Amino acid sequence: MRKLRELLRLYKIGKTIFTYGLDELIPARLQVWPARWARKGIFWLKNQHPELSRGKRIRLALESLGPVFIKFGQMLSTRRDLLPPDIAEELALLQDRVPSFDGRLARKQIETSLHAKIETLFDQFDEVPLASASIAQVHTARLKTGQEIVIKVIRPDIERVITADVSLMHSMASLIARLVPERSSRLRPVEVVEEYRKTLFDELNLLREAANAIQLRRNFEGSRTLYVPEIYPSYCHENVLVMERIYGIPVSDIEALEANGTDMKLLAERGVEVFFTQVFRDSFFHADMHPGNIFVSYEHPQDPQWIGIDCGIVGTLNRDDKRYLAENFLAFFNRDYRKVAELHVESGWVPADTKVEEFESAIRTVLEPIFEKPLSEISFGHVLLNLFNTARRFNMAVQPQLVLLQKTLLYVEGVGRQLYPQLDLWKTAKPFLEDWMQQQVGYKAVINAVRENAPFWAEKLPDLPELVYDSLRQAKLHNRQLQRLYEQYSRHHKSQGQGNFLLVMGASLLLGSVLLLGMEETSWAVTGLGITLVVWLLGWSRVSAR
């Protein structure tokens, strides 16, 4: 049954592509003959929207296919350097202008989740949504205290749609893994899809989003760079999220930002700072930073502050990942390509038998041209693409735990290009990473370690004399036990030696008795056998003694 559903979903995807004429957008040189013949065979599926622009056809197709595809469109919309302007403009509408569902359904879902009538919970509720996205939509309301809020409500039946799409993606990834195992060992498609599945289903649970937002707000409490709206946990549910309403300028509205007198250069630099702070200071970063989730405060435009919402997708890194990334970034910035190559080998991301010299040369070829250029002249997306091509030559494995980080970095660059095209991403990030590395390996690391462990040692200090006394007493007892064990071993070893000697002597006496018996010296032979038996018994008793 699951396979049948996947086949039906695959057919719907193909039907959507054809009915919106997306196959016509593929350049003729890329259309291989089997695909052309297959297209002619499906003659009943024709382009039903020839009058629409290509950008609008792509946007409508992604909207009709659901949240998984809308998320993909949102990510593409931030890469205006990789897309024609008309397509980028249309895809930008996917950030917060996805067709909404009926506000009455939202009201009913809120009341069901919170077990109370809207009028009991809030002073005011607007059934017309303020914004609508792929997973949920947002309504404005007011608490009984007068606080303005927004209520985020999950789309009805959205979990079933996502489950079907992810299941299809998982089947396709498994098929690829079987058909091209040599590439799959590097690209790890099943693991990447599994990571994406986890991310999507985490986003469906608004209690998880609430916890993420509370954590992110605490991390940037009092910060001049990022503000995270307050969450009201007592009104939250798996399907409902209530938070403070914020007023800000969408980061994509360049005209409004300039009209407000915003320092665009500082704003762009702070975007980079916020990203690296989340990754390297907190190990906890907002991983869905497309323009629909980012605003800029109207206040103090010359000292601009970012406002972040929608924390459904966050990423975390362990200590090893952070250190590895920081060392790689710094090696990139310092053009130490040898170090980059060695780090990749040491981490196991490329096989241990990789020739470092060849890998170093390949990395230099990709990265050297991008330095000392403003962001307007380079594209981090193109750099990543070239690095991935290099990775194929050296069998570099994809790391699923870093996919979110890569996507977020692309978001940051895309937003930075819109705000201030001359921003030097590398120059802005380098001082931050150098300071972080000093805190990890320099004298600051020692000070931080002492500071972090000070409460623990302060708690244990009063018990230290007793712990020292117990340790010494235990050591003395252990020494006595070792001495007894040694004495027992010595006695046993001595007894074993005596026993072995007696057994050998008994064997000699037995041989002599047999010879005497052959010489017809019967009395001596019988005496020898008797002595042999006694000697053997004595020897055996000593060998078997413990």
From TrEMBL:
Instruction: Name the SUPFAM superfamilies on file.
Output: Protein kinase-like (PK-like)
Q: Which Pfam families match?
A: ABC1
Q: Which keywords annotate this record?
A: ATP-binding, Cell inner membrane, Cell membrane, Kinase, Membrane, Nucleotide-binding, Transferase, Transmembrane, Transmembrane helix, Ubiquinone, Ubiquinone biosynthesis
Q: Does the keyword Metal-binding apply?
A: no
**What is the protein's major site of localization?**
membrane
Q: Write out the transmembrane intervals.
A: 501-518, 524-543
EC number in record? 2.7.-.-
InterPro entries the UniProt entry points to: ABC1_dom (IPR004147), Kinase-like_dom_sf (IPR011009), UbiB (IPR010232), UbiB_bact (IPR045308), UbiB_kinase (IPR050154)
Top enzyme class of this protein?
transferase
Pathway given for this chain reads: Cofactor biosynthesis; ubiquinone biosynthesis [regulation]
Keyword Kinase included in the entry's annotation: yes
Q: Which residues form the ABC1 atypical kinase-like domain?
A: 94-344
What residues does ATP bind to? 130-138, 152
Record membrane topology: Multi-pass membrane protein
Q: Where in the cell is it found?
A: Cell membrane
Q: Which residues form the active site?
A: 288
Family, per the entry?
Answer: Belongs to the ABC1 family. UbiB subfamily. Belongs to the protein kinase superfamily. ADCK protein kinase family.
**HAMAP family registered for this protein in UniProt:** UbiB
State what this protein does.
Is probably a protein kinase regulator of UbiI activity which is involved in aerobic coenzyme Q (ubiquinone) biosynthesis.
Read off the NCBIfam families from this record: PRK04750.1, UbiB
Name of the molecule in the record: Probable protein kinase UbiB
> Gene symbol?
ubiB
